[in-house]
Amino acid sequence: MKKSTPLQYVWRAGIYCLGLLFLALGVAVSVNSNLGVSPVNSLPYVVSLIVNVPMGTCVTAVFCFYILLQFILLGKKFNPLNLLQIVFSTIFGYFVNFAKALVGDWAIPTYAGKLVMLAISIVLIAIGVLLYMDVQLVPMPMEGLSSTLAQKMNVPFPKMKTIVDCLVVIIGVVLCFVFLHRLDGIREGTIITAMVTGKVIAVLKPYLTPVVTKICFGE
What's the domain range around 32? Predict the structure, then answer.
């Protein structure tokens, strides 16, 4: 984690929260598209159906599991500050509620309209991930796991993000058929988001990252 002046820390915190807001807006738009839950919510959603526990509880449990995996992979290199991922995951939940209220029932009719909404949500999610990752405070658990695996395997983060998203969706699909004997909540939109978001991040990164770095670190 890079050091900053007090003012730069304020900018970092502000941009981090802005990133979470963009991510929450992306989630809200994807929900309204009715083409399936986003990859980050797919596994908690399926688990909640299987164990009949509120999804919010399952989100916390699954995210804690992601943090545990980071600890196992990093060992002594694991930064205890990364435990704050749990706190920011809770804050993100409030942002999602705000975003859902802001978006309301907005939807574009027809299947083509739903695909347009899906595209909008993917761009919003990609911007959100880039913003809160680039300020180098605390990543969200799923991105934290993707970043850890990227470091361990020497793979670019956008590519590893795609791999992890797809893997989580596949696990969700398998659990659906094994325990529910049907596919629930995971649709074509979920798969498209998992496969495309990392690529959109790679496209946007050369434009957004230098701006964020300049503001937050003066570089």
Answer: 6-217
